[in-house]
Amino acid sequence: MAEKNDPMIPDGDVNPIDTDYQVGQDNIIVNVGPFGLDIHNRVFAVSGLTVIAFVLLTLLFHNQVEPLFGSIRSWLTTNLSWFFLSAGNIFVIVCLGLIVSPLGRIRLGGTEATPDYSYTAWFSMLFAAGMGIGLMFYGVSEPLSHFGSSFAGISTENGVRTDWAPLGAAAGDAEAAARLGMAATIYHWALHPWAIYAIMALGLALFSFNKGLPLTIRSVFYPVLGERVWGWPGHIIDIIAVLATLFGLATSLGLGASQAASGLHYLFGLPEGNTTQVVLVIGITAIAMMSVVAGLDAGVKRLSEINMILAILLLLFVIIVGPTLAIVTGFFDNMLAYFQNLPALSNPVGREDANFTSGWTAFYWAWWISWSPFVGMFIARVSRGRSVREFMVSVLLVPSAACVLWMTVFGGTAIEQYVQDGYKTAAESALPLQLFAMLDALPLAQITSFIGIILVIVFFVTSSDSGSLVIDVISAGGKVDAPTPQRVFWCTFEGLVAIALILGGGLVALQAMAVSSGLPFTIVLLVATFSIIKGLSSEPKPA
Known about the structure:
By secondary structure, the chain is mostly helical.
């Protein structure tokens, strides 16, 4: 008899889907030396071979693929920015609708299910998995970039805008440029990305914990595909999910490696080139493997909580020793500026700020969507027992507020240093170095910069660890207890893909693969939204 705390056994009333499919029925179990494998033969084989081929070709022909990556990124973001923006708006509207809808009363795991984790542990894991490396990399650099481009004003060539400022810019007005820059930054880090994560996570949790289906992406599509979801239509969905997750993670790992290398150069004089970044990826991937072997509770949970404490300490330090009053008032001013500019920033058509929408927003939306299988499944696994309303408020609104605070503290401090103190070093530094340049103008810069490097590395480890676990579940046909060597395989190849992209074009290559893998999964996620609402409508609500 199954134990009461088995996550796949509902507590209370649910409306399960009646299917003859058994988790792992299409898997093959083989022994490779002392290691056992339990894999979905088609999903694992196609996605694994595709990744291996990509790594080999990119490493062998990195000089030839570098311009190719740039062309791919430019074409997709320029021509399809309207599609990414429209999809992001749909996800936000659906999430907000579920919060106020009667469907919000439905509980994940059954009408009597209770949460597996405390709020503290839950929020720590949500935040570390969902945003960690990105916030460290862009927390200073993005607000400064939007402020600088807005302050410089609009520039045109042959009647076409060539500047990167959002909306209509704010030429020569430092206060207005700061407000617009922070509003544009928050737009990229608040409601929209977390709505993308929330939709994917809700679908996985609902169809696994309530409907009794395997914890794979294909299960979300049962209301649309029926039993065909166990055939090739479902295989293709899971393969796209594996590749999107892998390349989305590789983008983040590449950003983390470049920032860690810049920090080590700043503190200890180590060279900043590709060699240092590759060595960092190898070393941190090895640490991630140890965390993988330790398991979810001993590995990811513990590292996430440690990192959350360090992040809060660094945040409080900057608030106390930085421009405290400007930060406190700036939080509310920035939130107001965000909501005032949100309709214009989220408008997908008729935009004149093409560089901003294609170079920033379209890339971000594709990146978040490529991350959604990974973050969504991770959130789903740790969110059993929450009501849909509690889930949406927590996953959508609480992390959004945290991101606004983070950007206000770090980005707002850098802007304040520029405007009030005339300190322009951060703004003139390379993107990966801007965080450390901002900290350099504050007391105890050596210590805080070292903490910043530790944060990047541990976020790197938790992302790689969590991503390996999620990819392994998908490629094992929904088995959550597949053999550990499989997770080690995926952890290894996350690092190899990041190395291949670093050597094959750096940041442009990383962004190109995030956008390329995010495009097909955007279509998948839009169909999933319809399927989720249909699935929720049939669930019993608690008394």
